[in-house]
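hey so u asked for the seq, here:
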Amino acid sequence: MSRGPRIAKHPALASLLISLSAVGLGTMSGCGYQMGAGVDGSPSLYRSDVSTVAVPILANKSFYRGIEMQLTRALVTQLESRTPYRVASRERADTILEATITDIRVNTVSSDVNTSLPQEQLFTVTLDLTWKDLRSGLILVERTNFEQSSTYYPTLGEGRFVGSQAAVEAIAAAIVQELQKDW
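ran it, structure tokens below
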């Protein structure tokens, strides 16, 4: 007696399983975009001619000190986790990603009507960004007044550091998104 699969004896079951497998594979493939070039040669969201990026510590023209270190760290983390690029020293990198923080603002969105203490504040980071190919000198991406905001709530015990960290994480993710190829 054969111990092989019994699906062959039930053609309706076999056809149902094949259909479900096809649907499952179709939904797992998503919209067709992948982090790297696909096995089938499908396009990547990122440039295939770049493998390494240098990320020097960002310049800071604002009055908030230390945020340039936070943002540089967040940017390196985002690059390493969301792109196929490796972060390398300037001497070994194909490209360099430079940015200058030009402005940081904290605006009150809402205040307590009785005490006038801020209940909700907006932490906004503005920067200028350049991604340059070190091999050819070509500017790959250039953005000025690139801005990202984050809300925080001082009345809930969240200090300005919470707002700055959330804004830094958001702008680092937005910068990495800007490094995607043009459609």
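The domain at 52-178 is CATH 3.40.50.10610 (Rossmann fold). Confidence is low (pLDDT under 50) at residues 20-40.
lmk if thats what u needed
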